[in-house]
Amino acid sequence: MKTPPTLLKPQTLIALSLMCTTPLTVYSQEIITQLETVTSYGAQTALEQRQQSPNSIVVINEDQIERFNDTTAGDVLRRLPGVVFGGMPGENKDVRIRGLDKEYSQVLINGRRIPGGGEKREFQLDKLPAQLIERIEVIRAPTADIDAQGIAGTVNIILKTIPQTPLISATAGLSYLDNGDTKPNFNMVYGGQKNDFGYLLNFNAQQRQLLKDKNKQSFKADGSADKSEQEKGEKLFDEVQFAPSFNWSLSPNDQISLEPLFLVSDEEQTKEKIKSKKDGSIDGKELEQENKRRMNTALYGQWQHQYGSSNEFTVGLNLQKNKEDKEKEKNAYKGIDKLDKIENEIEDKTDQEWALTFDNKRFIGEHHTLVTGIEFIDKERSKNKNKTETKKGKTKEKNEGKNKYNIIEQRFNAFIFDEYTISERQLLTPGIRFEWTDTDISSGTDDNRKSTDSFWSPSLHYVFNWTDTTNVRASFTNTVRRPKFDEMVAYVDSKDGTLDKPDKAGNPDLIPEKSVGFDIGIDHYFAKKAGNVGINMFYRDIEDKIETRVNLNPVSGRYEEIPENFGTAALTGLELDTSFNMKNYGMEGLTLSANVTFLDGDITDQLTGNKTPFKELPDYIYNLGFDHQLTSSGMSWGANYNQISVREGEEIKDGKRTLENQGMQKYLDIYLKKSFANGIELRLSGQNLLAVDKEKFKTIFKGDGSIDKFETELEESNRAINVSLTRSW
User: Fold this and answer.
1) What was the pLDDT predicted at 503?
2) Is the CB of residue 254 less than 8 Å from the CB of residue 305?
3) Alpha-helical runs (H) found in 36-166
4) Among 615, 627, 602, 697, which residue's Cα sits nearest to residue 652?
5) What angle do CA 720, 721, 724 make, to 5 degrees?
6) Fewer CB within 10 Å, N- or C-terminus of the chain?
7) Hey, where are the domains in the chain?
8) Is 179 exposed, middle or buried (0-12, 13-18, 19+ CB in 10 A)?
9) Range 5-728 classified under CATH 2.40.170.20
10) Mean pLDDT taken over the chain
11) pLDDT of res. 179
């Protein structure tokens, strides 16, 4: 019987895994001989990578990433199954896998967490250009070697790796935003190997623009029109990114690799907001100017050593720093031109960490591959935000307690898992991960806190290769969501202390949310991996759910708005995806693709038993697309249609409970590519051609539960046209 692709010998599976994550790995002769019997990883399609994975993943490769000529990683991810983004339309920076809020999604770069500056521990994907990326993996159920902070899922972005043959590639492009300006971009890739040294230089520079046009209308509780606001704004980005990679083969058994990373984004934002009374007359005006710099620098190094005939030991040292500096000034006017006050804001945020990692892979006989590892991580995050208000010549501070803090997290992680080949058609991967975190929180108050938490994360993945082209998968996983940084700060900002205007407070006693997850699915591949049909069902049960509540403080006798672990939550879903090559139906070069995700979930208050929906969780998300290769003319073209259902949600802010309904969103993207002689490619794409609007309807309640007001919001987006010319040597 032929060995199924997913159930190759453990040695081969590990070797393939190593090739996936580390370029130019040197293997023992035994492993090299085995690798010669299978397709090299670099030549595999995304579907082959998906089929051979021991856990449930979705993969897109470099060709799929380049099709729509996207500017950022977020633009690429928007078309993947179950993925949505928050924020203004077109600003695809905070990914939400399976519709959950951004704090439930984890972003890795080359398998490593990267600090992103967000309070919810998110990495903003608009900082990473699509030109640096080789492939993207959406990990639905993690194995024990992956950080457990991904309840909804994990996005693993693999940057371009060292080529086997010399490569020089240059791309120049222009991006035009409807009603905006034309912005340039440039990318240069240079790489190859000389004797035992491999190298890759990947440089990118680009400018981007985002426009904002938002209208808000308020209504009184009786439904009569009240105040309104009109806001227009612009964001301009100047960005430089550099992602080189170097590899030295010191001996047949030793290899050293270095991967620096440099991402810098300078952002200039302007806003104008006009406030009107219910009769339409102008009530006031705000002019805002903001300058922000976001910068990530990192150096990743590792030494790999082969010992014996079936063992590999790896030591890694990772140094990372994220820094964000922001200056903002807002001038508020009474009427149209009478200056009322000036607000100034200066904010500095820094995330820096170092990590030392050790792991060992041991091939035991023909059936077991045992992987063990430990990680030491030291992370420090600091935030210093100063706000002042100048009115009638007098300046006073307007700071909140959560705006000044310093947090040190020291973590020890350990894991072990075994890829156990039960039979030629069955693979079992049991594992367990332990994460221990010691946290030291200091703030502008004298109430500094220390806390320690530990988390055991057992996992179990089973693959049954029913036939050579059909896999059945099942996974059991444990994952975690850690609190927001500013939620853990011990502070109290005094307001009125009433239900309508409660004090605001942090909660250093928060503990991480914990989730138990189940995934089960079937994947069928056909037409020599040119097509597939997949179905996956999942369930997440979340304990210690963190939500903001308004409670009466028994000591002060005042009401406080405070985050707390107050209940449980559950999320269920169904994911379907397919791609189909129409060659056998007389349509050479045409591939049809589709995916749809159905979602349902709610949050339960453990005291009252009341259920509320997850914030902005859609009922469904789907994509329909096609790609048509016209081989004779060297052309290809395609399109993708993306639709996100109506979304509802509930949150408490400033003492008021808000129910929100967000309208359906529809996106349409198209692309056209023409290949010429001498390695020249011309690409043209149109994105968001339907110019989707973001519509919201809000019902806002007072502290006593009565309706305070209604609000409607309409935010318009812009079409984008991208053109690029690439020359490869």
Assistant:
1) 94
2) yes
3) 46-52, 62-66, 73-77
4) 615
5) 135
6) N
7) 5-728
8) exposed
9) yes
10) 90
11) 87
